[in-house]
């Protein structure tokens, strides 16, 4: 039996442009003509296969990109959105109504957290935030009104790993939908293959990889994606977070090199994580044996694509962290910027500011400290050279002791 390989699935798609182009033609239109009024009526009713009506409903370029991302995640289909948040918020609003409840990981993307914590209660939807690595806590938080279990495969910023198969079992037992944000681990992890019902990405990060646009996708069953797109009650359709066709076309082109990029991101991050750990720095990377979920994550990933490009180190305190980041930028090792998945290394200090529901003592215990620096490791060709310069920066600001020159 052929094993599931997301990059092969993307490679196996074949598209032709209108004039035999090797890239699909970009649909540069918001609306579409019909030869007969009857066909237009049928299209409104959703009964005119292959016909387009209006680009908020569907456009060829967006469908091509959605198809490629569905192939990557191994789901029936997918719906692209104008941003990651434009994918996440409609999914939650589609699955939950007044009085419903969500059980979510407490360490999730700040925007998703703010939506659940501050926005959804206005609609009568509440969320319990739990330590997702403890399945008994997840199960204990479920109420008769719970509809959704929500997590990120690898969480932001602490790189905690969700046991997706374990969570899927709980979701099944209580008839919940398991929604997984897989932004940090494209290709490496295929959550739908482990029982997730809906898989979401911010395309802004590794998948597009060039930090030139925001974008998002929801991968799921045809039935669920049809619900999101329903003209009468679909959250994606009615809230309107539609991706532009030109962007869909450019993201599709970048998607084709994702497998090569992920291998290099993972290779470089593993190298740096190992070196910094040896140097005595507190380093968090799922590829290190010291990571609390190393064995679990190892069993979840497709080893070809590695443990990913995200790692953290602890610089000791906020002042040192800031000094180090400014110096690393000066030495052109990367940029002091949020976001991830770029060809250059990006670093920022998430600090205690993004840390959701977690009491301060627990934050300390988890390693969510003021001196934490989150790295999205770039595609550097010579990572040894990068390490040498990074080490110099660390010595200069006193994060590492100066090495004796013999
Ligand atoms: C960036 C990010 C998002 C939000 O995506 P946008 O494209 O910025 O809207 C959601 N989840 C994760 C894990 C992210 O890193």
CATH class term of the largest domain: Alpha Beta
Please summarize the sheet with the most strands.
Answer: 7 strands, mixed
The CATH architecture category of the largest domain equals 3-Layer(aba) Sandwich
Low-confidence segments, ≥5 residues, pLDDT <50? none
Number of helices: 15
Name the assembly state: single chain
Alpha carbon gyration radius? 22 Å
Summed up, the domain count is: 2
- Let me know the number of strands: 12
**What is the CATH third-level topology name of the largest domain?**
Aspartate Aminotransferase, domain 2
The chain-level mean pLDDT equals 94
Summarize the amount of helix as a percent range. 25-40%
Rough shape? Answer: globular
Modified residues (N6-(pyridoxal phosphate)lysine): 205
GO molecular function, one term: carbon-sulfur lyase activity
Cofactor: pyridoxal 5'-phosphate
Pfam family, one: Cys_Met_Meta_PP
Describe it for me?
- The protein is of the alpha/beta class and 406 residues long.
- The protein has two domains: 6-255, Aspartate Aminotransferase, domain 2 (3-Layer(aba) Sandwich); 259-397, Aspartate Aminotransferase, domain 1 (Alpha-Beta Complex).
- It is 38% helix and 14% strand.
- The protein has helices spanning 6-11, 37-44, 60-73, 84-95, 110-119, 135-141, 164-173, 222-229, 235-239, 245-255, 258-278, 294-300, 318-330, 360-366, 383-397, and strands at 77-81, 101-105, 126-130, 146-152, 177-181, 198-202, 216-220, 283-284, 310-314, 334-336, 345-348, 372-376.
- The strands form two sheets. A seven-stranded mixed β-sheet has the order 1-7-6-5-4-2-3, sandwiched between helices. It has a five-stranded mixed β-sheet with strand order 8-9-12-11-10, covered by helices on one side.
- The longest helix is centred in the middle third of the chain and has 21 residues, at 258-278.
- It is globular and about 80 Å long.
- The N and C termini lie far apart (57 Å).
- The model has no long low-confidence stretch (mean pLDDT 94).
- Residues 83-85, 109, 111-112, 152, 156, 181, 183, 202, 204-205, 214, 216 line the site of pyridoxal-5'-phosphate.
- Pfam families: Cys_Met_Meta_PP.
- Keywords: Lyase, Pyridoxal phosphate.
């Amino acid at each position: 039996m052929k094993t599931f390989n997301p990059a092969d699935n993307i490679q196996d798609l074949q598209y032709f442009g209108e004039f035999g182009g090797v890239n699909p033609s970009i649909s540069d239109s918001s609306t579409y003509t019909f030869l007969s009024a009857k066909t237009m009526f049928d299209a409104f009713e959703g009964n005119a296969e292959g016909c387009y009506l209006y680009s908020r409903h569907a456009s060829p370029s967006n469908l091509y990109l959605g198809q490629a991302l569905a192939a990557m995640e191994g789901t029936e289909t997918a719906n692209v959105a104008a941003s990651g948040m434009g994918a996440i918020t409609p999914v939650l609003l589609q699955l939950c109504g007044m009085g419903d409840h969500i059980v979510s990981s407490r360490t999730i993307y700040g925007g998703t957290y703010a939506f659940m914590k501050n926005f959804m209660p206005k609609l009568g939807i509440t969320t319990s935030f739990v330590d997702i690595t403890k399945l008994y806590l997840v199960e204990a938080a479920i109420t008769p009104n719970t509809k959704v279990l929500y997590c990120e495969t690898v969480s932001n910023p602490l790189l905690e790993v969700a046991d997706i198969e374990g969570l899927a079992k709980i979701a099944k037992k209580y008839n919940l939908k398991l929604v997984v944000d897989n932004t940090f681990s494209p290709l490496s992890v295929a959550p739908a293959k482990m029982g997730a019902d809906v898989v979401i990405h911010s395309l802004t990060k590794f998948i597009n990889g060039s930090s030139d646009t925001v974008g998002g996708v929801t991968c799921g069953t045809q039935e669920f994606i049809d619900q999101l797109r329903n003209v009468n009650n679909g959250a994606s359709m009615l809230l309107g977070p539609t991706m532009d066709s030109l962007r869909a076309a450019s993201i599709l082109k970048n998607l084709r090199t994702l497998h090569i990029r992920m291998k290099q991101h993972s290779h470089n991050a593993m190298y740096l994580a190992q070196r910094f750990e040896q140097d005595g720095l507190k380093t968090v990377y799922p590829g290190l044996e010291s990571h609390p979920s190393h064995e679990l994550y190892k069993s979840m990933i497709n080893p070809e694509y590695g443990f990913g490009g995200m790692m953290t180190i602890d610089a000791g305190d906020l002042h040192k962290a800031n000094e180090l980041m400014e110096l690393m930028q000066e030495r052109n090792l990367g940029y002091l910027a949020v976001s991830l998945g770029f060809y250059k290394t990006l670093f920022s200090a998430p600090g205690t500011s993004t840390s959701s529901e977690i009491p301060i003592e627990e934050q300390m215990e988890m390693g969510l400290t003021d001196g934490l620096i989150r790295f999205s490791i770039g595609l550097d060709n010579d990572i040894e050279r990068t390490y040498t310069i990074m080490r110099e920066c660390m010595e200069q600001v006193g994060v590492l002791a100066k090495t004796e020159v013999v």
